[in-house]
Amino acid sequence: MTTRVERSDRRLGLRLALGLAAMFGLGVPFLLLALLVRAEWDPLIRLDTSVAEDLHDVAVRNDWLVDTLKVVSDVFDPMVFRIVVTLLALWLLRAARRRLALWALVTIWGAALLGWGLKLVVGRARPDLVDEVATAPGRSFPSGHSLGSWVGCGVLLLLAMPLLRGAWRAVAVALAVLVPVVVCFARVGLGVHYLSDVTAGAVLGIAWLTVTSAIFEWWRREVGLPPAPPTEAEPELGQGLPEPSSEGEPELGDGVREPRAG
Question: How many alpha carbons lie under 13 Å from residue 10 in its C-beta half-sphere?
C-alpha cells in the first residue's frame, strides 16, 4: 500500500516532465514571436534592425560601455546560474528537501533544454553589424542569456525569500527583476542579439518558471500543505519545518484508511 505523499511524489516528477513538454506548444506569446521571426515579418525586422544599429552606434564610441556589458554577460552567464542552482539543490538534498531540490534542478536545466531546442527549430542568425564589438556562438532566437537570467533569478528568489526578513525581501525582488533586464540590455548592446531575441527569452523564462512553480504548488496542496505565497516556493524552509514524509499511514483509496489495531 502507498501513502498519499508517496503517490503525490510519483506524480510530481511526471508533472514536471509534462510541463517541460507543454512549454514547447503552450507559450503563445513566444510562439507568436517565433513565427514572426521565421516569416521575417517586415515591421518586426525593421524594429530589431533599428534598435540593434542604434545601440551599436553608441557601443562603438564608448569602450567603457562595451567592457561593462561584457562583464555583465560573463557574470550572469546562463551556466553561472545553472551551477549556483545545482549547488543549492545539493544542499537542499543534504537538508532532506529532495522535492524542492528536484523542482530547482528541473526548472533551471529544463530552461536550458528549452532554449537549446528552440534555437535549433527557429534557426535565426545573429546580427551582422559592421565593426562588431562582440561575438557569440550559436543561433540567436531566443536569447539564452535572457532565458537563463529570468529563470535563474526566479528560482533563486523563490528559494531565498523564506529565509529573508524585512527590507531584504524587497531588495531580493528588485534584484530578481533588475538583473535580467540589465542582462537583456547587455546582449542587445553588444550586438549579439536582437530585441525580439531577448524579449522571447524573457517570455519563455517567465512562462516556464510559472509552470514548474504551479506544478510544485500542486504537489504541496495534495500532501496537505498550506498555500505558499507567490514569491516563495516552500515557506517551511524558513520555519525549519521538514517536508512531509512518505513513511506515513497507508491509504486504501477514496480517503479510507486502514483501521488501527486496538
Answer: 5
Amino acid 258: pLDDT? 41
Tens-place pLDDT, residues 194-250: 999 999 999 899 888 988 888 888 888 777 788 888 888 888 887 776 776 655 443
Residues 5, 12: Cα–Cα separation, whole Å: 10
Q: Which domain holds residue 49?
A: 4-239
Say how many domains are in the chain. Answer: 1
Residue 247 lies in a domain: no
Range with top average pLDDT, 116-125, 167-176, 247-256? 167-176
Whether residue 260 lies inside any domain: the answer is no
| Grid coordinates of 4 | 498519499
Q: What percent of the chain has pLDDT over 70?
A: 81
Q: Residue 199 is inside which H or E element, if any? A: helix 195-222
- Rounded distance between C-alpha atoms, residue 176 and residue 161, angstroms: 11
Mean pLDDT of the chain: 83
Can you tell me the distance from the alpha carbon of 228 to that of 117, in angstroms, rounded to the nearest whole number?
32
Pick the closest to residue 16 from 86, 100, 120 (CA basis): 100
233 and 213 Cβ atoms separated by less than 8 Å: yes
DSSP structure class, residue 125: P
DSSP one-letter code for 242: P
Asked whether residue 253 is assigned to any structural domain, the reply reads: no
CA distance 202 to 195: 11
* CB count in 10 Å sphere of residue 70: 15
